[in-house]
């Protein structure tokens, strides 16, 4: 059996990326300017259904700009999913806001709308201003946008969706992120499509998009000389990365189908193993299955997630625990969390399996075989 390294979610080129990059070099637009950026933004707007997209250096930059443009200010609360990556939350602290975390719903693993409502009610009673709500579309599954949006509207709080992990997922007939005032996407090397790095801010608000684009280029005013009346950032995507992104957009539908096939194969191979289950798919949408995530029941399974991870690593296979909840992170010690037991349980029982679209059936069978041996 091959012992080549199997990574969790490696980048996978589709074939036209090199052609696009050659065109970038031929145009001599290398720095953060050029026609490929505009074309990439347009392709993303068409795909997601948003009116405007702004290509940036990272998904984190998109969240940072989005929070700033939605009016988050020092002393605000920013309510975020606790089951997420830290980049969903850290931009709020850069703006001087305080995080308040909300637990997941067991049926979807995304932000629990009922707990969000409770958190907003408590903030209202305490006289605290909530600058934004930031639910995470976890592992390629959309949060329950309609219910979350209804709650946010009742309290007059803007919604910023962290869709970094969910490009290609659907909420009903809508794209991931669609419905929020701002959505943030990521094209990091481990995402379903990649630019090697990069992100996208999406919105239906033209003025907000134009302001985001200005801020991403050091907030330069339209003068011949360099004039600045507000502070900006070096957040613009390069034309080279946009060229790669254009090539990747050509295969996005195929990548989603491949990830879902990988999930289905894992489910077939491991679904009848005692104590093993998989991340559920929300009834309201269609997950991209960016990563296949399994749960191990400690009362029925012979191995813990860490024992399985070590067994896979011994065979040169990468896997990873589920995100450690933000309210359990030392850097957020003392931060309040509405609920928390669901996310803590998922972290204790969950393991993310290799899900890259370059995986063959034999690769998936190899991974599943090792898991079966551990779990027997």
Commentary on this structure:
Helix content is 37%, strand content 15%. It is α/β, with parallel strands linked by helices. It has a four-stranded mixed β-sheet with strand order 1-9-8-5, sandwiched between helices. The protein has a four-stranded parallel β-sheet with strand order 4-2-3-14. The protein has a four-stranded antiparallel β-sheet with strand order 10-12-15-13. The protein is globular, with a radius of gyration of 21 Å.
Topology:
Elements: H1 17-27, H2 35-48, E1 52-56, H3 59-69, E2 77-81, H4 90-94, E3 98-102, H5 113-126, E4 130-134, H6 145-155, E5 160-162, E6 170-171, E7 174-175, E8 182-186, E9 199-203, H7 206-215, H8 239-249, H9 252-270, E10 276-278, E11 285-286, E12 292-296, H10 305-314, E13 320-321, E14 337-338, H11 341-349, E15 350-353, H12 361-375
Parallel strand pairs: 2-3, 2-4, 3-14, 5-8
Antiparallel strand pairs: 1-9, 6-7, 6-11, 8-9, 10-12, 12-15, 13-15
């Amino acid at each position: 059996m091959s012992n080549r390294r199997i990574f969790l979610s490696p980048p996978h080129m589709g074939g036209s990326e090199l052609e696009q990059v050659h065109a970038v070099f031929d145009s001599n637009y290398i720095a953060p300017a050029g026609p490929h950026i505009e074309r990439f933004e347009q392709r993303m707007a068409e795909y997601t259904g948003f009116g405007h997209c702004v290509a940036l250096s990272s998904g984190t930059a998109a969240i940072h700009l989005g929070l700033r443009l939605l009016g988050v200010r020092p002393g605000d609360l920013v309510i975020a999913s606790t089951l997420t990556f830290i980049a969903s939350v850290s931009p709020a602290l850069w703006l001087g806001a305080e995080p308040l975390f909300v637990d997941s719903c067991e049926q979807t693993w995304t932000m629990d709308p009922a707990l969000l409502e409770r958190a907003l009610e408590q903030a209202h009673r305490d006289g605290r201003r909530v600058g934004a709500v930031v639910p995470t579309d976890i592992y390629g599954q959309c949060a329950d946008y309609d219910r979350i949006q209804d709650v946010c509207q009742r309290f007059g709080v803007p919604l910023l969706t962290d869709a970094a992990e969910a490009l290609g997922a659907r909420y009903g007939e809508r794209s991931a992120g669609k419905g929020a005032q701002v959505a943030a996407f990521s094209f990091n090397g481990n995402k379903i499509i990649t630019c090697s790095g990069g992100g996208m801010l999406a919105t239906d608000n033209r003025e907000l998009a134009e302001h985001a684009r200005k801020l991403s280029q050091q907030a330069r005013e339209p003068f011949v000389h360099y004039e600045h009346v507000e502070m900006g950032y070096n957040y613009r995507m390069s034309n080279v990365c946009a060229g790669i992104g254009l090539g990747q957009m050509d295969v996005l539908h195929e990548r989603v189908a491949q990830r879902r096939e990988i999930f289905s194969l894992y489910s077939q191979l491991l679904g009848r193993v005692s104590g093993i289950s998989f991340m559920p798919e929300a009834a309201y949408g269609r997950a991209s299955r960016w990563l296949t995530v399994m749960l191990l029941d400690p009362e029925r399974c012979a191995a813990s997630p860490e024992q399985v991870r070590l067994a896979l690593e011994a065979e040169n296979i990468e896997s990873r625990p589920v995100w450690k909840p933000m309210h359990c992170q030392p850097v957020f010690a003392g931060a309040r969390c509405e609920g928390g037991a669901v996310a803590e349980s998922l972290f204790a029982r969950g393991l993310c399996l290799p899900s890259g679209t370059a995986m063959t059936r034999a690769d998936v069978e190899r991974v599943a075989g090792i898991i079966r041996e551990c779990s027997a």
